Amino acid sequence: MKKLWRYLYPALFGLLIYATVRVLNDTIAGFRFWERDWYISVIEVISCIFMGYLLDICFRNLFRCFDNRMKRTVGYKTVLNELLWVFVIVEISVNAVITPMAALTDDGLSWGDFATINIIPLLYCLIYYTVVRSNKLLQAYVNNKLQLEKVTNDHLQTELKFLKAQYHPHFLFNALNTIYFQMDDNVGEAKKTVEKFSELLRYQLYDQQQTVPVNQEIQYLKNFIDIQKVRTSERLRLKTHFDKTLNGQQVYPLLLLPLVENAFKYVGGDYHIDIDAIAATTGIEFTVSNSLPSQPLTQKQNGIGLENLKRRLELLYPGKHELSLQRDGNTFKANLKLATGI
Fold it and tell me: Which of 37-51, 83-97, 196-210 is predicted most confidently?
């Protein structure tokens, strides 16, 4: 049935155009086309049916061409360009088939006949275009949006992995260096450090960009702090407080590490570090403060850790985080608030 309709509807489309033009012209002029020679009406009908098939062939080729374009991109310019081609095809076909026929029959071609012949087929073709192409254009638009979102998401995931990987070399170097010197002093302590080091690596390898319970992140920080304590000065005064209510809240991993790592890296002066993690009303609040050496830090000394953290927070917690970094005298304080409802 569909195959029959495929070959039948262009003829019906041409007849619809002919009947509409005939009714409009004959009503205005008071003309009765059935009172003239029958063969003239037959010629007109055959010509309109031929034009219906001609338009069908042209439209199918046009739509096939634009379907290939819409696989790459689709927008209002694409639609306007396609509509322009529809207008050109209709006007050329009408003036190549119907206009000469009207000029050679009855009383010739008037301006009213010319306007009717050009406007009626165009209106029907625009209706046909709207019915046939609306679903296709909408589908192409949605597919392009999905493809763009996929490309964007892949790019962001790649950037996140790159930013996360930049923490590893510095940490690996420090941890291995600590174990190396422990081997000379205390092999037993060195083995414990290796165990903690392996737990840190396991966490980094298997917990990529998926959320984890915050208590896992806290345990990771505790292991990291234990390793750092081995290689720091005995003068260091370290205070840590991890709220016991921080348990099942979901967070992205390795977002708290840069603040702690930065504190151990740049601690000086009277050598104190305070680390505090509490359950806030909207999520989690994490605060790290450390004393600074008397000599001011340069921008180069600050490194890329905090800049990477800012970028990761923008990607993972857009509009759902607050990061405050400030220096008050000889103390540097970092405060991070995360909304856990992600």
Answer: 83-97
* Domain hosting residue 45, numbered range: 2-147
Do 143 and 178 belong to one domain?
no
Residue 217 CA to residue 120 CA, distance in Å, equals: 71
Q: How many percent of the chain have pLDDT more than 70?
A: 75
Cα(245)–Cα(279) distance, integer angstroms: 7
Mean pLDDT of 41-62: 84
pLDDT tens-digit profile of 58-73?
888 888 887 776 665 6
Q: Do 143 and 208 lie in a common domain?
A: no
Helices (H), 30-167: 38-70, 76-104, 111-165
160 inside domain: no
User: How many structural domains is the chain composed of?
Assistant: 2
The tens digit of pLDDT for each residue in 266-294 reads 888 888 999 999 998 888 999 999 999 87
- Give the pair of three-digit tokens for residue 128: 């046909």
- Kindly report the pTM of this predicted structure: 0.53
Residue 152 lies in a domain: no
Question: Would residue 117 count as lying in a domain?
Answer: yes
The answer to whether the beta carbons of residues 287 and 333 sit under 8 Å apart is yes
CB 284 within 8 A of CB 214: yes
Same domain (yes/no): 268, 171: yes
How many C-beta neighbours within 10 Å does residue 327 have?
Answer: 11
Contacts for 197 with CB less than 8 Å, ≥ 6 apart: 175, 179, 227
Same domain, 12 and 62: yes
- Whole-angstrom distance, CA of residue 49 vs CA of residue 34: 19
